[in-house]
Structure formats: structure tokens, C-alpha cells
Amino acid sequence: MSRVSQAQAIENRRRAVAAASQLFRERGVNGISVADLMKSIGLTTGGFYKQFASKEALVSEAAQAAFGDLELLLAAFDTDHGDHDTARGALVDYYLSTEHRDQPGTGCPTAGFAGDVAREPTAEEVRETYATGVEHFAAWMATDTDDSLPVVATLVGALLLARATAGTELSDKILESTHKAVTAPPES
């Protein structure tokens, strides 16, 4: 049996984390086995256990990677839109779009990992990673007048409901009505 180089082992780990990050958001943590994950990147299950202590360790790393991707996306919105208020509005437009709804594997980890983190009471490391990611997302969404936790909760809840009802008229209605509610000017 040939041994892989240290550089190849690092690349294999990176590929496993990236694939897990996408597949866990797409199918759920329990919807993808270690064997299926490793097969998706052309490696064996034995290779997994050389890289990770457990599936839970991978889940934590995958969630961390997904929230890192979210940070990059938010920074790109700031860069592309010039000012933060415009970027925040564009993010809401994207977040409540059918494109985002229909691509959970590359979508927001706040929605993608929510159900799994909520159902797994022993996943402290994942829960901490998740909580930190939600806090950073809310901080980015914050305005001078609010902390945005209710807005983030509304966006994530709407996306989860829209995904759960995808293929029905209700799904589009959830996205549209939530967009209208979130972007409505504040009442005086």
C-alpha cells in the first residue's frame, strides 16, 4: 500500500471538509454517511479515520468552513455594493430568492445546519461553531438602530419554510411576503 504525502493528506482533508460542508447543508448530517462522503471525493472510508477523530469532528469543521464561506460572501456583498446599507439590501434580495432556496448545498449555513444542530444535544463543539456563525451574521446585518437578530431569525425561518414547501405556491409566497416585510420602511 502506498502512503500519501503530507501535502496530499492536507489536500484530501480540505476536499473532505469542503464536500461535507456542501453535502451536510444539502442532505443533513444524518443524510450522508462517511462512506458516501469519501466516495464523493474518490477516497476510501479508511482515509477518513486517518484525518478525523469522528464524524462529529468533521461536522464541526464543515460548519466552520461553511460559516467561513458566509463571511467571504458577506465581504463580497460589501465590496460589490460600495456601502453597507446597499449590501445589506442586496443580501436580503439574494437570501430570499428562489436561487438560494433551491441550492441548499451552497447556501447559508445558518439555515443549512439549523435542524441538525438543534437535534443533536451532544454536539457542543458544533453548537459553539454554529452560535458564533449566527452572531457574526447578525452583526453584519445590524444597523445603527437594531442588533438584527430578529431579522436573521426571520430570514432563516423563511428560507427553511420555503425549502420545506418547495414546489408549491406557498414556497414562493413565503419568500415574497417575507421580503416585503423585511424591506418595508419602519413605521413612524
From TrEMBL:
Keywords assigned by UniProt, alphabetized: DNA-binding, Transcription, Transcription regulation
Record's protein name: TetR/AcrR family transcriptional regulator
Ranges where the HTH tetR-type domain occurs: 10-70
InterPro entries documented for this protein: Homeodomain-like_sf (IPR009057), HTH_TetR (IPR001647), Tet_transcr_reg_TetR-rel_C_sf (IPR036271)
DNA-binding region: 33-52
Matching Pfam families: TetR_N (PF00440)
